[in-house]
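$ fold --in a.seq
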Amino acid sequence: MNFIEEIIENDLNSGKYETLITRFPPEPNGYLHIGHAKAICLNFGLTQKYGGYTNLRFDDTNPVTEKTEYVDSQQNDIRWLGFQWKNELYTSDYFDTLYEYAVTLINKELAYVDHSTAEEIADLKGTPTEPGKNSPYRNRSVAENLDLFSRMKSGEFADGVCTLRALIDMNSPNMLMRDPIIYRIKHAEHHRTGNKWCIYPMYDFAHGQSDSIETITHSICTLEYVSHRELYDWLIEKLEIFPSKQYEFARLNLSYTVMSKRKLLQLVNEGVVSGWDDPRMPTISGLRRRGYTPESIREFCERIGIAKRENIIELSLLEFCVREHLNKTANRVMAVLDPIKLVITDYPEDKEEILTGENNPEAEDKGGSREIPFSNALWIEREDFMEEPAKKWFRLAPGAMVRLKHAYIIKCESFSKDADGNITEIYCTHVPESKSGEDTSGINVKGTIHWVSSRHAKQAEIRMYDRLFTVESPDGEEGDFKDYLNPNSMEVITHAYIEPYLAHAGKDARYQFIRKGYYCVDQDSTADHLIFNRTVSLKDAWAKANK
């Protein structure tokens, strides 16, 4: 049990609340990322565990950066993760009410219109060790403030000419309590309200009041909002509205990536990645396209837990979670990524066999089986043959024997080279009595390699993805975070060969390429141009290589 669950249980058991109500309040100014997934799993998971419900509320108070595209993508991501909200709401639903709340504060002499510039307001704020100074407009009368605020609303003033500030305490040790701005002018079309408004509430004014309107019992935020809680409570108290309560937990910081939506947008706009759903991005849509499953992301969020201290979570844990899930759910198939031709010289050239391959021995139902065509000409991995074998080499070499997965034991008899000395073909013989499942040969071999029949294979493009950055914390390094981009974060293999079984794989279908890793069908894949993305390797090769 984490500390938030303890608070909720105490509140419910004491009768403080009859129903637990949480909310997930993203700003629709970008795509959701893995950090948001943690907040989604927490908010929705709590109401699944304790009853009650969760609202989805879009914090759409900045018309300049917000788009309906982002609203749609965020809804899709939440549903994909396996959650459903009770009410779909928008802060813009409350613009009229929030305006009236601001008028209430003016009437209580707790807000005033300030004509100071942004620079002047910043100068008057003081510092953490020095008190602020009162604005020259702080003592305006209620009547004057009501008039000016109404004229702000009617569009009389240009952007930046004036703001509405809460009148609190310019000597407060909490800088946010030094007469914070609660309304600013923005002449911009809003994605829902159009041009009805030219003044918009600031986050700190809109957030707590929106929570209160929805009678949110536990408003769960990340730790950067700890200092905002005092203002959250002050506004609710002065407006005498439902007392929602704010609680904070440590945000998710993931190694080898950045989580700032501003920086992620920069990567998109500058063409560093192909889009928000690029499989190298930490966005939920990027992880989905890469082949991650909602189950693996939920398990990851469960494993990292809820804490009160910031730390960096290793990307390898997320990769471990998806490996664990795909090991149980992904069918095993054969794909050759760096092909070299192998000919079985004593197998009739005109003969074909249909062999049987087990789909997933780790699945509860064993995953069933599939048919695999076999012929005398195969593609195998170039790395599975060594002309001069190293010690303890158990794969193919001159005179060596290996088993072909699901097929026969073969022995390398010879090979050919081109003019540059590159091996072009390998020639083998086979042991007819060694067929998998029917082996009576009595021969034991230590190595097994995978293959595809060259006559039946389908060609595919394979996109090999790796970490987007070369350092654990790009934000913590000197200089521009883009200086640490991994130049090898994406490798494209254009001439791989796969089993014909994969030719009709559905979009987002996930597989284990035997001995290679986990792969999924990319959304751009077509019947004429098959594309697979590598989700993750079979083992954490990165950690070993970077010790």
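$ fold --in b.seq
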Amino acid sequence: MKIKRKRGPRKNGKPSPNNIGPWLKKLPADKREQLFQRAARAQWGPEKQEPKKADDGPWVWPIDLDRYDRSSALTAAEEDMLTRYAEAYRFYRYGRTMDFGETLDRLVKPLNDALDYAGIRTLFRKYVLLFFLREIAEPKRAFWGWTTDEWIETIERQKRVEYQHVIAVAYLLCGFSDLHRLSKNHIVYVVLARKVFGSDYMNTIAERVRKVLAEWGYLKATQQAVLRTVCEALLYIRSPHLDELTIEHIETVVARHPCRTGSYRKVAFSRVLASIGTVSEAMEIKRPVKDKKLSPALTLGVPAEWCRLCRLWFDRSTYALRNRNKSYYFLLNVGRWLGKVHPEVLSPGDWTRELAAEAVSIVCQWHGGDWCSIDPVHVKSRGQILAPSTRAGRISILRIFFRDLQEWELIPRRFDPMRSMTTPKSLLALIGPNPRAIADDVWAKLIWAGLNLTADDLPKIGDFHHVPFPSTAYPIEMSRALVTTWLFAGLRSNEIVRLRVGCIRWQKDDVTVPGTGETLPADAVCLLDVPVNKTSTAFTKPVDRIVGEAIAVWEKVRPQGVKLPDPKTGELVDFLFLIRLTRVGMTYLNKTLIPALCKKAGVPLADVRGNITSHRARSTIASQLYNAREPMTLFELQEWLGHSSPHATQHYAKITPLKIAKS
């Protein structure tokens, strides 16, 4: 049975003088103190010190390189000693205390100093020293003279767990900085930064960065990824101070990785630096968008002058970008038809009244994919005749195109496009109000699914192999508020994502309804402030109180944010649905939340009237209010939907055949 040795009394982290041997009493006091300190570090570890902060003055390089002999050439005695001891060193039990004598002290001492600072365990120290002795003995050249490529080859050959210490030695002693060139399994930036800059410095920095990111709503996995970029950037500038970092440093560090890797991390990191005042302005997320208009196949077979004027109209027109893109693609298709059927007509200025009438007739019979390029980027229903409203819109595009070119005096006025390119009455007769309301049974299931939405119903990010508890992209409180607003408020998707903080107001006092004499109790009416939209200015509408309750729950847990410019008005506002300093995506409702609701409710993603999208809820709610037992009038519904005229409201609300039969 092995009996454990009891430790002697300890005072101030040192052995008691009463328990020292007689031979120690004969040593000088300074020598005895050094031995006491060494014994304390070996048995109990270093004395506990107050942790340093990352902003406690300038950080000094921990190892004074000037006190070493940094000559790369080996002496004959060093070569002989390396040959004798390189293999024998492996079998010595206590590698740290092995005495090489003065012969190898020039090589071993800086290695031991660097390993002491990095905090290596005694068990691993002998393997690291043996590794370096072998690497020095083979080329017969000290590590002081190794090139960057030689260091990379040396580190790559180290397959044991001590490679972090080898990298730390290269970084501390020889200025090795090309960390990004090492294999991914050979570098852990967080661990290396702790060894180089010290755990106290890095703990302070990590706590500061995580605190800011957590306040903005970043997930823990993202916080750890950002912290990796922080450590890599600090190692790049060889300093543990955040205030010495610049945007250029972050760009350089992220550019050393493959495309898009870390692109969102650098934006989050720059936001942290901007919040503490290190940089003046944070970076923005730049999502690469391919300009499809630059494709050479898009203009293949189109007359050059027609292409030039189409592009000129696209650049000068004041319509919304989405509408201009669709118009530009259609005009190029018309030019391709022109080059095939009428090759003599090269410019819009050559058009006549007869050609305009022929073009209108062709558009009335237009199918999806007709006269498109070999690289179609905008065709959805190939081979099917376009909807009447779509064909009428194409004729309107052609009419406006010629009108603008004539008014800008780019082509001569040879005919009046407003009269020669009018939409045929036979086509207009096919167009009328046709609200795409969702069936009542399907809508009831969607409402049930929205009211019972949980985090398990939403798609998760991460996987169980790397993230023990995968989470949703957005907090469940925000997703519930989004879903409830979509189900009960009757708003456009653009209006939902642009709602502001404090958009909900409650009725505070009892109110008597004019004309009826009925009394509405306090807090019975919830008012929602709707921002400026495409048909009206900002207005206030009453909504179900469940909308106000869901938004109130989200506002309580909503992370801190900043004011961002409204894409429609340009003013700086506090967006309600803001997470990680970014407004919720425009496609999140249609591509994530609504499919999740359909899956929970057990209904398909589409019906006979098309896909279930965010805008169809607006038609469904309007039709239900218009056909209720105590229905809204058309003008009341117009005000509630925010339309500028009752004609627009007719496209959303349609009287049901059941109500007509009852009447």
